[in-house]
Amino acid sequence: MPAPFRYRFRVRYQDCDGQKIVFNARWGDYVDIAATELVRAALGHPEAADWRLVRQVLEWKRSGRFDDLLEARVTTKRIGTTSVTLATEFVRLESEVPLVTAETVYVMTDPATGRKRPVTEEERRRLADGATPILVDCSGANARPPGEPS
User: Fold this and answer.
1) Contacts of 9 by beta carbon, 8 Å cutoff, 6+ apart
2) Rounded to a whole number, what is the largest CA-CA distance in the chain?
3) Could you give the 3-state DSSP secondary structure of residue 21?
4) How far is CA 30 from CA 21, 43, 117, in A?
5) Measured distance CA(124)–CA(118) in Å, rounded
6) 104 three-state secondary structure
7) How far is CA 12 from CA 21, 32, 116, in A?
8) Less crowded by CB within 10 Å, the N or C end of the chain?
9) CA dist list (Å): 129 to 20, 73, 74, 132, 146
10) Which residues of the chain have pLDDT under 50?
11) 78-120 pLDDT, tens per residue?
């Protein structure tokens, strides 16, 4: 199995409750963002896969908190005739502590009809590779003040 596609981000204030803990519902958004970035990396454009969510199971292990640096690690678990199953693990980057896992099933659709369609051989090949070893870093962790050398 290839290494996971990785997407890094920082937890924003608006993603949290009054205790500065990530709202449970935000994890579904995080899964969707990571899957979109996987599609962009694997297929070349975020809209390259016209798919619909049909099932998502999340398991919370620990809380994410405001300003945490997180990494979503996405692997293609299964590719069926018309569906793709992704496994996503979120870890706190500094400590590698697992926070949330998700299993998400998408069904490929035809944009004109909205009906299911088969996963193409090209999609199958590229999604099976998992867009590795790509890391998309939107965390701002490596940002430097203007004028400071990189």
Assistant:
1) 30, 33, 69, 70, 72, 138, 139
2) 52
3) strand
4) 14, 20, 26
5) 10
6) strand
7) 10, 16, 36
8) C
9) 36, 14, 11, 6, 37
10) none
11) 999 999 999 999 999 989 999 999 999 999 999 889 999 999 9
Q: Output the pLDDT for position 144.
A: 52
Query: What pLDDT sits at residue 140?
Result: 78
Which pLDDT score is estimated for 131? 66
Is-cis flag, bond preceding 98, omega within 30? no
Q: What is the pTM of this model?
A: 0.88
Judged by phi (left if over 0) then psi (alpha if -120 to 50, else beta), residue 115 lies in: beta
Question: What angle do the packed helices 26-43 and 121-129 form, to 10 degrees?
Answer: 110
Q: Is 26 helix (H, G, I), strand (E, B) or coil?
A: helix
